[in-house]
Write a structure and sequence with these properties.
heterodimer, A: alpha+beta, PmbA/TldD fold, 9-stranded mixed sheet, 7-stranded mixed sheet, 28 strands, 20% helix, B: alpha+beta, 10-stranded mixed sheet, 9 helices
Amino acid sequence: MIEKNLTGFIAEFPEYTELRMQENTSLNIAYVNGNLMANNRNVQSGISARVYKNGVWGFASHPDLTEQSAKSVVKAATDNARFLDSREKRGNPSLPQVSGTMEKAFFTKKKRLNQNELIGFLKEIDVYIGKNLHNVMSRTVILRTLDMEKSLITSAGTVSYSMIPRSNIIILLSADKEGAPVELYNVFGSLGQFEDVFENPGDLFKGIDVLHGHLMKKREGVFAQAGVKECILDSHLAGILAHEALGHTTEADLILGGSVAPEYLEKEAASPLISIIDFANTALEVTCPVPVYIDDEGTPAKDAVIIDKGILKGYMHSKETALHFSVNPTGNARAYLFSDEPIIRMRNTAILPGRDKLDDMIKSIDDGYYLLMPSNGQADSTGEFTFGIPLGYEIKQGKLQKAILDTTISGIAFDMLKTVTMVSDEMVWENGGFCGKKQMIPVGMGGPAIKCSIMIGGK
Amino acid sequence: MVDKDKARYGLNSLKKRGADKAHVILSESARHELNVESGDFSLLRTTYNNNISFRVIKENKQGTFSANKLDNDSIDRAAETVFTMAQASEEDPAYAIAEKQPPDVFTRGREKPDLDLMYKRLKIFLDTIHQQYPKTIIRQASIDFTAYNYSFLNTNGVDFTTTIGYYTFGTIFTSREGKKASSFNYSHFCSTELDHELIEYGSIRTLLDQSSGQIELKNLDRKFDGEIIITPDCLNSFIDSFTYSFLSDYSIISGTSIFKDSLNMQVADSRLTLHAAPLSKEITTNYFVTRDGYRAENCTIIDKGVLRTFLLSLYGANKTGKKRALNNGNCYIIEPGDMAQEDIIRSVKQGLLVCRVSGGRPNDKGDFSVVAKNSYYIENGKVMFPVHETMITGNIADLFMNFKAISKERINFGTGIYPWVLAGGVTISGK
């Protein structure tokens, strides 16, 4: 538990200053083939200050949560900013004076489970898989939780406190195919502490059975045919598509770093069926997987509309990039650890649902693929994106056929999104994603299924 | 110097609670970092951190807990927590800690940074980019100096202290001309000194030389089975995939490694010799103690294509009945080959010079499908043009068996030393 209100330190700020106290608490329990391979907890907390002066920043952090530590990090960050300013003499204007007050904490009101009960919960899942699912070569059951608790004050007047937790159970199954493994995994869970997300191990069994069913089909799977194909990207893929294809290329720091996105501003960047928003905290009246109410430089967070009916409308901003582009900051500056400085990050990036039915979309394809699950991905300054596909099926004459083996899809976002001809009426959020851009950070990714042409790897 | 009394206090706190076996790892770090965003200095950062990590085994049950508070009350609370975790665990006789070894103190690198030199080197780097690479934008660059102090104590009498400090430089860049941009590229190095300009370390100048030539790309309009030359920057990701998918604790214990029964058997072409050398003087990011508390030793993982060791921890070794690895892996050094890099290119009839890949992680079997980034088409021994939207599909195990040449030249990143490698057996497909 950290101190909620840091206003007592505001007198220590000689320049534009942000002072943040933060504690990250994580838990990792893992069973591999019935062996408890991980039983770990980690708590990292500390205090940091960031100071802005004429276009450069100073930052300092320390693990001690004392008053003396707070004062010393403010002084060190101020010294750092002044050192850099004395060398650079950039003379940039002041940052936008935005501020807000907020307290939002997603602590469970239920009785916390102890380590014994948590391990028992996972054990029950492990035993279920071991007893009931056939032809499984190896099984892995992992619990990962992360509580991020932050308090922040800024010289611009922000006072905020938040505790945003996430709880995930990851199931990884492998089957034997002619002496070599074929694997599939799925991530269960969402925003919230464990007790609010998971009630009974049995609630996961149906999803695990579905995963196993796919694995058995993948065991008989074939390589995809390499080339550009008509594909249905399932709703579970829409979020990572939004994140990798358009999200990164429209982060304002990457715009300044050479991204091609400015060439499309206020122009057609996608099919008119496509709208993409980086939601701050609430989407379609539902709290997002990673809600951000005030970001880590003290800006009240707003939804960032990236694409509206195919037209590129704007970028995601920090205070500094908002100043550069003469727009309002969007509240996208986030930091992972107390010792990390806030940088522009996505929050909950989603494609908005359309009106089509998934079945109709599949029926409309003569020769292509239905791609169901994503793995890791990457974006490029050119708009080119890639991400892994561990699960998919062939579509022949509108019907699902054989499963395909692991592959990768890629495309140029601004070309590929123009090929979208159908968008389903679903809205599915992925709740377990992390984005790695200098620092790791939890992100939400969501959307419907889409029909498009895309490059797929294979034989 | 690390406050070893804190580590002793932690170990005693665990002993008082009745630990059968326990270890404590105490670390203290100080980092000074200069950052560049979009070609300009952006931030100077100073961060201090501590970490104390406890591992307790009680009646064959194990728990681990780590935190970054070092006062006695916090250490006692952490000791209590890790005990509760161990009690909740399951019995497994494979849980163990390192046996007693002679105490030792390891020191490498600098104690403190030269901040003025860091600033000067980075400033010259930015000026050089501005003057010599006018189309190239430094999206991000950072130079940091981090000093680490570790103390490793366990109830068997293990007592190791490590002090290490070095600079790390990394940069991400892209080139632009008109409405077009190149793919971003990146590289890094670690070094105990900054004797040279930053651009001269590792492969940084080579990649910058290439970047502006990658704005205009060409499509490969066909699919073929060809050869790829993997550059040192890119080879690292293939080595990491190989060691994780086939040699790690997880892959051996879960039984998914296709090489789980291949010790002392051919798993790669005989040209390949791969060392994990955490003690090498050629490597900057040395470590001297394994995660389990053993004095680290250099080892040869693949000797002329033959697998000589898995990368098993003490738990992994006890669990599988195989030998514990002499180190944690990383600090990889690949022995040089006998062909010049240019001769390797001349030997390729049709293929790619692969400088970076992007795509999904290889599966447990080693199948991979990736997009070749910042990469070039080679035909009849000549580098023809940089390619656009080109996929490479193959299998890592097959790829390693199909190494056809290894270059004499290597790049030392400070984290590892890698050559250029020519390999076959992949499918290359353009748009």
